[in-house]
Amino acid sequence: MNSKQQTVLLNDGHFIPILGFGTSAPQEVPRSKATEATKIAIDAGFRHIDCAAVYQNEKEVGLAIRSKIVDGTVKREDIFCTSKVWQTFHRPELVQVCLEQSLKQLQLDYVDLYLIHFPIAMKPGENYFPKDENGKFIYDAVDICDTWEAMEKCKDAGLAKSIGVCNFNRRQLEKILSKPGLKYKPVCNQVECHPYLNQRKLLDFCRSKDIVLVAHSALGSNRDKEWVDKSFPVLLDDPVLGSMAKKYNRTPALIALRYQVQRGVVVLAKSFIEKRIKENMQVFEFQLTSVDMKVLDGLNKNIRYIGSSISEDHPDFPFLDEY
């Protein structure tokens, strides 16, 4: 980690800011909020903006980025923008189509990072979540290595500076890494990661392959009723985080974010509340002791807030493996 730049070196030579601003939002949040929140985030100092086609607010996020370039707050090269190819675009001929749609929405010529959002292909079409008459997801038979080759072409075309994956387990990463004719390794694997799911084994594996771990849902989750089991404990209510927050005179959220930064994990902080967005930038203003880092390591409960209801009947469902 380069602490002066607060960035991490990727295996293709590019740098990724270690703190990112997440833009996914529950359906009840108006899309216009994404413009307002992203502007606040950029003004507060965020330079890494994490987007995805499936969030369906890239147009609004793009408006914020464009306005901050126009008003002179940032240049395009100051912003590290991520997008993701959705499951209904896994066919090789559709990968660049999805990226070009995102670029048009974002009003950008390229993204800094393009990711495969989830390692399971779904039936192409207008519907992001295609289901049959029984409410079951309709899958598509696409080899993930074929999708990866199309990702490589997006990098070669200059539409994405770096390429990586999301929500992949070790086996799925190894499949790409051992692919005959591999041109580019994934630079990162973006996965759910927080003190209740610290991903230690996956982190160690990724490090051994020079792949950066990026943490989404780093503060637990927004408790979206569609995805999250309400019986799960609320991470930020954890008494250990609470006592550390008092000790360091910070919020429990900042303790959870700082934990990832000190592990060298790129961490996404998501909020649509101005005070919290600004507060999250304080992650660079303090340091946890090695003893406290070990205590936080000990909070792991293998609780996964996100994704347990998506495609768990599929043989390639990534969360059935230990890591």
Automatic annotation (TrEMBL):
Substrate binds at H117. This is Akr1c20 protein. It comes from Mus musculus. InterPro entries: AKR, AKR1C, Aldo/ket_reductase_CS, NAD(P)_OxRdtase_dom_sf, NADP_OxRdtase_dom. Keywords: NADP, Oxidoreductase. GO terms for biological process: daunorubicin metabolic process; doxorubicin metabolic process; progesterone metabolic process; prostaglandin metabolic process; response to estrogen; response to xenobiotic stimulus; steroid biosynthetic process. The gene is Akr1c20. The record marks K84 as: Lowers pKa of active site Tyr. GO terms for molecular function: 15-hydroxyprostaglandin-D dehydrogenase (NADP+) activity; 17-alpha,20-alpha-dihydroxypregn-4-en-3-one dehydrogenase [NAD(P)+] activity; 3-alpha-hydroxysteroid 3-dehydrogenase [NAD(P)+] activity; alcohol dehydrogenase (NADP+) activity; aldose reductase (NADPH) activity; all-trans-retinol dehydrogenase (NAD+) activity; androsterone dehydrogenase [NAD(P)+] activity; bile acid binding. GO terms for cellular component: cytoplasm; cytosol; nucleus. CDD domains: AKR_AKR1C1-35. Residues 19-300 form the NADP-dependent oxidoreductase domain. Pfam families: Aldo_ket_red (PF00248). Belongs to the aldo/keto reductase family. The keyword NADP applies. The active site is at Y55.
